[in-house]
Amino acid sequence: MARRAFLGGLSEAEFLGEYWQKKPLLVRGAFPGFRGLLSPDELAGLACEERAQSRIVRHRRGKYTLEGGPFTEESFAALPERGWTLLVQGVNHFLREGEELLQQFRFVPHARLDDLMVSYAPPGGGVGPHFDSYDVFLLQGMGHRRWEISAQTDMELVPGAPLKILEDFRPEERWDLGPGDLLYLPPRYAHHGVALDECMTYSVGFRAPSAEELTQRFLGWLGEHLRPEGMYEDPGLRPPKHPAEIGEDMVGQVSAMLAQVRWDPAMVGRFLGEYLSDPKPHISFDPPRRPLGLEAFSRRAEARGVRLALPSLMLSRRGVFFLNGEEVRASKAERPLLQRLADDRRLAPPFGPALPRLHAWYQAGWVELG
Ligand code: SIN
Ligand code: CO
What pLDDT score was predicted for residue 33? Predict the structure, then answer.
């Protein structure tokens, strides 16, 4: 069992067994020498882009306000010296190093991974005491942040606040994190991070869709994929007492029709593959402006390898692949190649039977030359 320095010397299996979804873990010097992946100015630049999801949280005298991006240079110039924080979601969609950082956490299935969020705060900045509904690894980049955490079960929120702020946060532990320190928090664990100096924090977040969301999405998917047969029939109809009344016969017949709706694990797997690999609505791809033809692409790909474009999401289930919300039925010969591409997000040559498919994905901006 390989021990992982960034998990405090635990193996991945030990971390999952003892901490994942169970209790916090603090690892000092988890990523030695880590100072961050981008500068405050570069983060602010991203926050000015339409395709990045960004927020600025400000607080004064215990009151928090929230503003959504994209921002402008003027927005930043108008900010006070203290008491605010900028948060940019999905930094791994813009920065190759961000994606590489996420790859460190591949002991958790890709289907659970959400994204890399990066925050910047001047001294005193933070988003207030709160809890998140997902697992998160908080990696400190530049500067220092004081984290207070609590296992409290009182999750009452300040009413009417524009973001989730715990009404009665009672910290139980407190640590000051510096560059390269890592704090793992399971879902619904109360926490509060305050910048001690100019500080940037990297949050590796894992998605956990609610039962409500999954059910709604699945029922939508099912509606598009089922083709039930038959029609409503009433050859034995008798004159009703109240013509406006929906009769028991009708309710019974429709209930019986709906009871015919069936699904199996293969359909659930297909739904999950399409749903979980579907890029978020603001995501866009950059197809090459003058794409290479198949032959030129093949020559270069065979020399340089290929990789998934940063915003691409690829999952697999039992030899079926899902790329950016689309099901991909690959030939037997292609499967080991596509599995490696899905697992590693990159693929070394030779590509043999997968070349035409890789070329089509390259034309769509889903795959790039390595
Ligand atoms: C932050 O980086 O300021 C906030 C991260 C979090 O508390 O989830
Ligand atoms: Co949080």
Answer: 96
